[in-house]
Structure of LacI family DNA-binding transcriptional regulator:
Amino acid sequence: MTSPESAETPSVPRQGRTATLAEIARAAGVSAPTVSKVLNGRADVAPATRSRVERLLRSHGYRRRRADASRSPLIELVFHELESAWAMEVIRGVERAARRAGLSVVLSESAGRHTPGGSWADQVAARRPHGVILVLSGLDEGQRTLLTSRSIPFVVMDPAGDPGAEVPSVGATNWQGGLSATRHLVELGHTRIGAISGPTRMMCARARVDGYRAALETAGLAVDPGLILDGDFHHEAGYRLGLDLLRRDNRPTAVFAGNDLQALGLYEAARELGLRIPDDLSVVGFDDLPVARWVGPPLTTVRQPLTEMAEAATRMVLELGREEKPTAGARMELATSLVVRSSTAPPAA
Amino acid sequence: MTSPESAETPSVPRQGRTATLAEIARAAGVSAPTVSKVLNGRADVAPATRSRVERLLRSHGYRRRRADASRSPLIELVFHELESAWAMEVIRGVERAARRAGLSVVLSESAGRHTPGGSWADQVAARRPHGVILVLSGLDEGQRTLLTSRSIPFVVMDPAGDPGAEVPSVGATNWQGGLSATRHLVELGHTRIGAISGPTRMMCARARVDGYRAALETAGLAVDPGLILDGDFHHEAGYRLGLDLLRRDNRPTAVFAGNDLQALGLYEAARELGLRIPDDLSVVGFDDLPVARWVGPPLTTVRQPLTEMAEAATRMVLELGREEKPTAGARMELATSLVVRSSTAPPAA
């Protein structure tokens, strides 16, 4: 009994060892240099040939043997969008770790990227970097194959969703962070604590709110689903949902804001309603962006070590590149820590 | 009569046309491929040979003929340090313009850069980018020669000091910005207006304070040198110098803070002294970072179009690359504009 794939290409071995370039060429009915051209992202290959070769590379799990000398001294850093307020912290960490390894950083944005020179992944493959770091951005099946067949390792940083067990990734202890933020409020004496979450499609947002729930439950406090609102991690959501929470008759005396930007939106809502922080309302953020220290009052928040996470992701991708086989499923989580400033206090008597 | 340089290398023409690669090779006593290797940043050239060739390239103003095909689809973006609060705005603009041109962005930091692979400029030369954008960072003579001899154009963005008349650069109308910030305060009725400047070695800081002075003088108000303090564009300076200004018996009723970060430091100083903004103190910033909208009260500031400036610098460097001879001394200044929010009001009666 044969699987559809092996029936399609009987001349290429499927098990035990990976196919050679010559075998892929024979199966595709092209010369070995043509397969090479496809691997190197060269433009002078007919589209039909190219996609036939790509299909075979994928179905046979072809993996180019590494030759460090042929790699460019580059690391690719890819953001879904460069709008993120904490992109700078990440860039700094990757640049620092790359520099230590003698590499330069190519920065790009994957959102809406359709350039004349082919897809984003084609361009990356043609540059032959030492590795790729993806921030809040996954890879589709085709992109993954493209990188894997060129033996270009990749690591996902702070995945928005579930990166899949086999994808190496670096994150922070989001659940633990939500837990300690909320415990801090409980210990100050708050019993009516609201939460503004990030988008529910982001695992990190879910983990933070789950930590919030766990803190309430372990303290013997009821979790009121009406006090948990879904935001999107932007300032505007903190403002809008903050107004919603704070205008209620039985308003919360404290809010875990999900991230720092939402906390700042919540500050604005409180100002507009004439509520003083922390006297009338305690606020805890998440991230510890530089701005958290600068707002009035300085924000109590959960520090996410973004620069260190980015450095760790860079080291991880370089380690993957040095090994014969990448460690599948490597997942690293760096610890978060509560930074107590002036936006939290016991509830008014 | 001959100059020392031409006496040193009599076989190479100095005037009328630039030296050819073969002529440089003959003068250096090496083969043309060796000169080529030096130009391409290859490691397999003896250091003594390399520096002899570099010296000749410099003294004869050698300029490689452009061959677009041999260039990598890259733009280099170089920060002196990645610490700048507005680096993200610049990165976004360069990325946007580069993407439109089908190019990717290599990001690096020039401060303290000593990598095993040679100097920063050597690495840039070896990558053969379409151009280099330097942010708050100049080039020394050797780096400039290295780029010029490879026909790699460069543009300086928002120069901290005087970039020199022959260096293409993009900035903002800093003087005009300082003028309109201060005029706004004068029009509100303030007569005792302080200023916290950036570092005096930065031309942009000087220009802003000169605009402040011009606004006072044209309004018939005396300029009190004791009300102008030199900061460094960081939050801490705004706080420290803010305390200095606000603790005086005859304290100013308004302050032009030089940039947004110093304005936020000034906010903190005012909070600490129990002064309300804008009731007791009006504050104007400069830059219009995203945070200016989020602080309490939202900050009146001078918008510097950083993303547009970065896009303009990218377009300029690509234009320079397309011309046979770069336009020496191109300098572009984009307009600043006053954004009035809630941190300014008439002085208390």
The radius of gyration of chain B is 25 Å. The interface with chain A takes residues 73-74, 77, 82-83, 85, 87-88, 91-92, 95, 99, 102, 104-109, 113, 115-117, 123, 127, 235, 261, 264-265, 267-268, 271, 290-291, 293-297 of chain B (CB under 8 Å).
